[in-house]
UniProtKB/TrEMBL annotation:
Residues 213-233, 269-358 are annotated as: Disordered. This is non-specific serine/threonine protein kinase. The keyword Transport does not apply. The chain crosses the membrane at residues 365-387. Its EC number is 2.7.11.1. The keyword Zinc does not apply. CDD domains: STKc_PknB_like. ATP binds at K39.
Length: 389
């Protein structure tokens, strides 16, 4: 069932996506001149009061989280018996839109993205909520007012609660990211989200998933060290493999513990995540938004502020032609060395460096002194000639 063309002052644009439990629509608030996403419960589930309650509980949890790194909910309502809630629109899609098999992301970019996701998960954990289904599709990307991008955690694994309400015992989750205890029916706490976020980071670092298939999840075998797939800074293997430990007791206790260790292993102790256009040594500006993605991440930056809309029934296609691998120098290609490098300014003769004084090299000082002596000699010679006539 489609939501109506008009929801109060919201005007429907098109459908963003649909799943077994809900459909998400793009609407536009003509009064505030901004796009919003509207998530509506699937019609076959909308008839069950217990499922409706759990659906709306997700909206309440998201509203209570009130974090820049969790999808925000602005309103809830009902249209023709279908409950819905209005939430943040991810104008840069999801992390899944920017991942391609066999193409790793630069390590500094991975640290940035994973750290932002961990901040959102940490807020949920402090509210007593375990996500249970962290994966690239549930990590949404939105442009901040200053043009930077931020990660927002979405979809709180409410599908699992819905299946329990229906009396089904099917395991819900994505095997490539799921913790073994989710597959075997063990106790689940925030360490399941540590595992899932570690699996997302593994894929970003290597361009490969940790595993495929439910059987490999239940077996609980440690993954191949990521450095065997791609060159990585020393220490990344140990941090990631601890996050992906099959035994919850062996993992990082909190998502922020994991990402703090990951940042140190990639950037070194005390080093902030670099922001393009600023020196890493200068640190983040107080109150600044999360850093921008380095140029070359995802679609062309001139189009990132535009709505990422897909007509209903249309399957979006990649901007890269099938079978084509982006080459160095192309808009979608960023090598690890390029992404982690901060351009060093040439301070020679720059009045803005060294407290406003020109930063002159010794050779130039000597040359200037010699020129001054020559000019003084010529001037004195002219003056002497004039007075002796």
């Amino acid at each position: 069932m489609s939501l109506p063309e008009q929801l109060g002052r919201l005007r429907r644009i098109n459908r963003i996506g649909a799943g077994g439990f809900a459909t998400v629509w793009l609407y536009h608030d003509d009064e505030l001149r901004s796009p919003v996403a509207v998530k509506a419960l699937a019609e076959n589930w909308a008839q069950r009061d217990d499922v409706r309650d759990r659906f709306l509980e997700e909206a309440r949890i998201l509203r209570a989280a009130d974090s820049d790194h969790v999808v925000r909910v602005y309103d809830i309502g009902e249209a023709d018996g279908t409950p819905y809630f209005v939430m943040s629109y991810a104008d840069r899609g999801s992390l899944a839109d920017h991942l391609a098999p066999g193409l790793p992301l630069p390590p500094p970019m991975v640290v940035d993205l994973v750290s932002q996701a961990a901040q959102g998960l940490d807020v949920l954990h402090r509210h007593g909520v375990v996500h249970r289904d962290i994966k690239p599709q549930n990590l949404l990307l939105r442009a901040a007012p200053d043009g930077r991008a931020r990660v927002m955690v979405a979809d709180l694994g409410v599908a699992k609660a819905m299946l329990h309400a229906s009396g089904l015992t099917q395991i819900v989750g994505t095997p490539a990211y799921m913790a073994p205890e989710q597959a075997t029916g063990g106790d689940i706490d925030q360490r399941a989200d540590v595992h899932a976020l570690g699996a997302v980071a593994y894929q970003m670092f290597t361009g490969r998933r940790v595993r495929e298939g439910m059987e490999s999840v239940a077996q609980g075998q440690p993954p191949i060290p990521p450095s065997q797939h791609t060159p990585l800074p020393p220490g990344v293997d140990a941090v990631l493999l601890r996050a992906l430990d099959p035994d919850p007791a062996g993992r990082w206790a909190q998502v922020v513990d994991f990402t703090d260790a990951l940042q140190v292993s990639v950037l070194g102790p005390g080093q902030p995540v670099p922001v393009p256009g600023r020196s890493a040594s200068s640190g983040p500006e107080p109150g600044s938004a999360p850093p921008q993605f380095p140029t070359g991440f995802g679609p062309d930056r001139s189009q990132l502020g535009q709505s990422r809309t897909t007509p209903a029934g249309h399957t979006p296609t990649s901007q890269t032609p099938p079978g084509h691998t982006p080459q160095p120098g192309s808009p979608q290609f960023v090598t690890p060395s390029q992404a982690g490098r901060t351009p060093q300014p040439d301070n020679t003769g720059d009045p803005s460096s060294d407290g406003g004084r020109p930063n002159l090299r010794p050779g130039r000082v000597l040359l200037i002194a010699l020129l001054a002596i020559v000019v003084a000699f010529l001037l004195s010679f002219v003056l002497v000639s004039l007075f002796t006539r």
